[in-house]
Amino acid sequence: MKRISEAEMGGKQAETSNPMDRGSSIWCLLVLVIGALVVTAAALTILKYLHFSKNNEAHPINKKYADALELALQFFDVQKSGKLVDNRIPWRGDSGLQDGSEENLDLSKGMYDAGDAIKFGFPMAFTATVLSWSILEYGDQMNAVKQLGYAYNSLRWITDYLINSHPSENVLYFQVGDPGLDHKCWERPETMTERRPVTQVNTSFPGTEVVAETAAALASASLVFKENDPDYSSSLLTHARQLFTFADTYRASYSISIPQVQGFYNSTGYGDELLWAASWLYHATRDDSYLRYVTNGQRFANMEITTWFSWDDKLAGTQVLLSRIIFFRAKDMPTVENLDLQMYRKTAELVMCGLLPDSPTATSRRTDGGLIWITEWNPLQHAVASAFLAVLYSDYMLTSQTETLYCSGNSYKPDDLRNFAISQADYVLGENPMKMSYLVGYGSRYPLYVHHRGSSIPVNADTSCQDGFKWLYSDDPNPNIAVGALVGGPSLNDSYSDTRDNVKQSEPSTYNSALLVGLLSGLISTSSVVKSYT
Q: Is there a catalytic annotation at residue 103?
């Protein structure tokens, strides 16, 4: 209306303000805006590419750790029970196919714990929890070196078994086989003939620690499978919730309820497993009741007392896992729970300070070669577990831009923790006084007389339970290489005796391997961890 009235007045502005001219101006302006946006987008793409390229240059794949990871993951294939699928180990075959049948259960899957043929549920569940944690933190690194699929497969082989071992809410079958009978035999699992009974915990004979560890395994695995198999993930989480309730409601150590386990995987207490399981259930569900459990459950936490992470003691792992919440989600926490979680982080820092070799509070429990050394039985488990926690904590600091860790007034950087982790990994892979790798198959020198039944007996040998012991005491190296096995490790004086009956040093285990997989995955490249699992 305004322009028409101006035209009627015959003004100059009316003569030049026709619709075509006005449209042309708008069109030109639109073209300029679109052009600017295109240029900006292109610039951002170039910058993003340059940033990506720079990161790739700064964080290349470490071939040494990638090669070691590829080997370490194969040991889970060595240990598998059941009907094998896509078998990567030529000397392994089907075994344990009738496990669980006497209770109308399919317990054929799962893994043998070490050099024998027993399925011990307590360390097996811990193996699954650590594998899940490793995938959640470092799955991208595993994928970059084409190992993620194998990690998924190994984890699911265990969790399938764990689901089947939980047929009702308050029953868990935690062992297949009789250790007494098994240890009187030396035979390949493919040719076992002795009876393989199954053992359960229930409301009459509770077993809090093994039930809670199984809950932790299934809760953490539910996060791993959440995107690519949501139905399976949901099933895992349902079992995990039920198992935690069972563990917490009927509190008793399985070592007391079932005394015969004391000679093999004796538990020193169940409080740490309850906290560990509740921590994983919180991460899997974001249900605040689990967070309140760990913050109100500090009677189990032994704050300001450092411990060693292992299949038996989860406290140090729990402290690091709960520190993750403080690093990445503290602002979302209620004040009281935030303060309680800070106590877990404080203890985690004490653990880290104890590991740093030049810290004022550094542990003296090391060999002269620099290896963390706690016990003569399977000594590498504590060194690798400590290094795994250290690389995790280092990456939590790096990702959250936390620059400094203080140890009795001295300051340390994330790289200091990472360098400690590297020192332990490198020791395992051959940088040690013996100049040998403790990872079977890695390097030019590694153990040849591994304490492992299947590895030590030729595939075509016709042996039974008793006469197979000739292979245990044979002077010949193992005819089958237990690829990826991490043996027990050296003595306090850094020495190692490569003999098959040297059980303390030469027997491998799946839980050692799970911890090593986590450590190596964290060292493949110097990238940081994801901020959230969900």
A: no
Name the catalytic one among 77, 113, 116, 395: 116
Tokens describing residue 207: 């077993």
* Predicted TM-score of the model (pTM): 0.89
Q: Identify whether 312 is a catalytic site residue.
A: no
Host domain of residue 39? 2-46
116 is catalytic: yes
Positions of the chain with pLDDT under 70:
1-59, 297-298, 330-336, 527, 534
Using alpha carbons only, give the angle 392, 531, 383 rounded to the nearest 5 degrees.
10
What would the two tokens of residue 503 be? 């059980």
Q: Can you give the CATH number for the domain in which 247 is found?
A: 1.50.10.10
In tens, the pLDDT along 203-233 reads 999 999 999 999 999 999 999 999 999 999 9
Rounded Cα distance between 373 and 381, Å, is 9
Residues 459 and 500 in one domain: yes
Residue 302 and residue 215 share a domain: yes
162 shares its domain with 216:
yes
* pLDDT in the model for residue 219: 98
Q: In DSSP terms, which residues pair with 198 in a beta bridge?
A: 176
Catalytic site residue 332?
no
Active-site option among 248, 273, 416, 507: 507
How many CB atoms within 10 Å of residue 393? Answer: 27
Closest CA to 407 of 360, 351, 363, 372: 360
d(Cα 31, Cα 28) in Å, to the nearest integer? 5
**What is residue 297's predicted lDDT score, i.e. its pLDDT?**
63
pLDDT tens for each residue of 151-192: 999 999 999 999 999 999 999 999 999 999 999 999 999 999
What does the pLDDT read at residue 151?
Answer: 98
Domain count, the chain: 2
Pair 23, 81 in one domain? no
Please report the beta strands in 433-490, taking only residues with DSSP state E, as ranges in sequence order. none
166, 239, 382, 451: which is the annotated catalytic residue?
451
